[in-house]
Predict the structure.
Amino acid sequence: MSEDLARFAERAVGSLLGLACGDALGGPVEFEERDDITARYPAGLREFVGGGWLSLAPGEITDDTQMTLAVARSLTADGLDMDLLTAEFLAWYRSNPKDIGNTTRAALALLDAGVAPDDAGERVRAEMGDRAAGNGSVMRCAPVALRFRIDRHGLIAASLATARITHADPRCTWGAVAVNQAIVHLLDGGDVDDVCAAALDGIDQPDVRIAVSGAADRRRDEVRGGGFVLDTVGAALWCLLRHETFEETVVAAVGLGGDTDTTGAVAGAMAGALYGAEAIPVRWRTTVQHRDELTELATRLIGYGE
């Protein structure tokens, strides 16, 4: 393996492991206020503490990584297998997971009742309106960036499809495209200062453009850590652009409070693509759940694109 290819592979593994580490770090403080997290962890939460409302074990992941694994398993040498993705999502849904978002739960219940994948997310959007614009589409999208790094049209199509099955709101679907374009830019060694421009390449959805283009200029008290999809995208980019190491990026994301596991996961996927797996603290990457499968899947996915 050439030095350049080896570095790219390390970044690809870093993206999926980084996502899982951000998820595992943030899970135990999910839904806590940022001031409460700061009071408990003045230097930032830096260890896999476990606990929280889900009673997690240290290093245990949540729905963010579980659904990421489902997406990764459904990406093959031929592209995105929607039948396999549907089967993976339904197998997970039927396993009674500890945590599942409201929009995702509603869509997967429809899938479980026989509604077609192309219709489930649209029906939930019609019923829930703006409440269906959650961040479930962006928390799980990173494997698409690895699989379609050199196929931009394929990346856009697969990003939209993996989002729309549960989250059909255009802010969710195009938010997933933006996150994946940012990850590809970073995987390829692009300058982090150009990541917002890369994320928005070819995207016309106005709310996505506002959320991404203004990310770096916000004050911390303007950065929101809630479950709205574009809050998560903007927060993850803010953390990436305002911090200089993988650990500081993810610690900052979790420290924003609210939907801490998802903000941590999206920021971790981007930071892992930027800094690589070796930059993830050893105490995290050797402890996080599913690390071996995530490493194997990342390596397999980049192989499809060569």
Q: What stands out?
A: The chain has a mean pLDDT of 96. The first helix runs from residue 3 to 26. The CA atoms of residues 173 and 186 lie 20 Å apart.
